[in-house]
Design brief:
Layout (H helix, E strand, L loop, with lengths): L1 E6 L9 H7 L3 E6 L13 E4 L13 H16 L3 E4 L1 H9 L3 E12 L2 E2 L16 E10 L5 E5 L7 E4 L2 E4 L10 H7 L1 H7 L3 H29 L6
Parallel strand pairs: 1-2, 1-3, 3-4, 4-10
Antiparallel strand pairs: 5-7, 6-8, 8-9, 9-10
């Protein structure tokens, strides 16, 4: 089995999820948006679109984003297991008829409020757990989506649509490698007035708890696919 992950910047990778995905029998392959041919994504056994510093508002400047949206929609129509994280979640919503609009920026470690529908999903492991938030847009989910989590600033933090699970936040991030994020997004952090030292210190405080929750989420979700060991 093959997991194909579309990556937009090198440091926003599968993080703590990568070893868990491999342990479930998947060969993990990265495709870099704007560089690699993305065609293999559409039929992969597992497809993941990761985050990045661009958004749906940038479709005209970065045509590869429209390509990704089309590939995501195709996978959902085909019923293929798909994960969409942050930018990926926004592109999926756009592809399926939802909208993405400017929201209140959320950058830092915090929780999410799980909605009743999440209790029977892998996201139940996030109850009371920290996750990394890093976004400025918010999703208005497409028709037919089930919203699973929210925060006060962002009503749709996670949703399901058919074979896809979409997450606005980052349960995959490895807090041990947060320095790559702090360096890579320094311009955004400065423009928002976010404390780099504060983010770094908070990563040390909550990173282990975040990792445990993130691994439990991906582990249960993969087991639910019924492909383990195949």
């Amino acid at each position: 089995m093959r997991c194909v992950a579309i990556r937009h910047v090198a440091f926003e990778d599968l993080g703590i999820w990568e070893d868990e995905i491999a342990a479930h029998g998947y060969e993990v392959v990265y495709l870099d948006a704007g560089v690699d041919d993305l065609a293999p994504f559409v039929s992969a056994d597992l497809g993941i679109v990761l985050g990045g510093p661009v958004g749906v508002a940038d479709l005209e400047d970065y045509p590869v984003l429209a390509e990704e949206a089309g590939l995501l929609a195709s996978r959902v129509r085909s019923g293929l297991p798909t994960l969409a994280v942050c930018l990926g979640a926004q592109l999926l919503a756009h592809a399926l008829g939802g909208t993405v609009e400017p929201g209140a920026p959320e950058v830092g470690w915090g929780g999410v409020d799980l909605l009743p529908a999440a209790s029977s999903t892998a996201l139940r492991h996030l109850d009371g757990a920290p996750v990394l938030h890093w976004h400025g847009d918010r999703i208005v989910p497409p028709a037919g989506a089930t919203v699973l989590a929210s925060t006060e600033a962002t009503p749709c933090q996670a949703y399901m649509h058919g074979s896809a699970l979409a997450l606005q936040f980052h349960p995959e991030v490895d807090a041990e490698r947060i320095e790559r994020w702090l360096l890579g997004h320094t311009g955004e952090l400065r423009s928002l007035g976010v404390s780099v030292t504060g983010l770094r210190a908070r990563a040390r405080e909550v990173g282990d708890d975040a990792a445990v929750a993130g691994i439990l989420v991906i582990r249960e979700w993969l087991r639910g696919l019924g492909t383990e060991g195949s």
